[in-house]
Design a protein that fits this description.
The protein is of the alpha+beta class and 224 residues long. It has a domain of 155 residues: Phenylalanyl-tRNA Synthetase, Chain B, domain 3, CATH 3.50.40. 35% of the residues lie in helices and 25% in strands. The protein is built from seven helices and eleven strands. The strands form three sheets. Strands 1-4-7-8-9 form a five-stranded mixed beta sheet. A hairpin with a 5-residue loop joins strand 5 and strand 6. The longest helix is centred in the C-terminal third of the chain and has 18 residues.
Length: 224
């Protein structure tokens, strides 16, 4: 699959990067019981790892600090930090369909923002770019969203796939019928190339727990 950085990506965010995982031969139709003990183990590890940290303490974690700096430009709070706070407060990690669940587990473990898409719904090459402002797409909830200038986003020939601030689109969402997927990790300034690679490898390994036949087609990092 072809990927490219748009002309405004490096101009606006020269220290940012994008990670890509394309994976095929997936099984996503039934609940993955294999993930249940791993989800429980991750919950316990997260609570031990971040014990005693309030919101200010969490924001001092380098990964969360990097995303917090990006989100604050848009007067937003990094949604993954809010989800982590709820888990540290005693809520369980939710169990969605296996691919989405694996992605969320990897996000929580590494604190890196990732979007997942049904590969069969993507049209043509994928471009990563910084928004000029005014670009529109349908979010996962079906509502139309207009991007703010400088937000990082990905798009194919039919439209936007996801953005950092507003999340994934509805058109290419992962369904139980999804048998091939694209995952993109937004490495905002402050996130290193090796962190993104390790994160995508973790996601690959989690997917293979419930879908051992899964085949990686691409695992790449793109940077200006």
């Amino acid at each position: 699959m072809n990927f490219e950085l748009g002309e405004h990506f490096g101009e606006r965010w020269p220290e940012a990067l994008m990670g890509v995982l394309v994976i095929e031969r997936l099984s996503n139709a039934t609940p993955a019981e294999e993930l249940v003990p791993l989800r429980s183990e991750l919950q316990d590890n997260l609570r031990r790892r971040h014990a005693g940290l309030g919101r200010a303490g969490l924001k001092s974690i380098p990964e969360l600090a990097a995303y917090d700096a990006f989100y604050r430009r848009f007067k937003k709070t990094y949604h993954l930090q809010l989800q982590l706070e709820s888990i540290l407060g005693g809520k369980p990690i939710p169990a969605g369909n296996p691919l989405v669940s694996a992605m969320f587990m990897a996000e929580l473990d590494d604190l890196l923002l990732t979007a997942g898409h049904d590969l069969q719904q993507i049209a043509g090459p994928v471009r990563f770019d910084a928004a000029l402002g005014g670009e529109r797409y349908l979010r996962m909830n079906g509502e139309e969203q207009e991007l703010k200038p400088a937000d990082l986003f990905s798009a194919d020939s039919e439209g936007i796939l996801s953005s950092v601030i507003y999340g994934p689109d509805r058109r290419t969402r992962i369904e139980t019928s999804t048998d091939s997927a694209l995952f993109t990790t937004y490495g905002v300034p402050g996130i290193r190339r090796e962190q993104v690679r390790t994160h995508l490898e973790r996601l690959r390994d989690l997917i293979r727990v419930f879908s051992p036949q899964a085949q990686v087609v691409q695992l790449e990092i793109f940077a200006p």
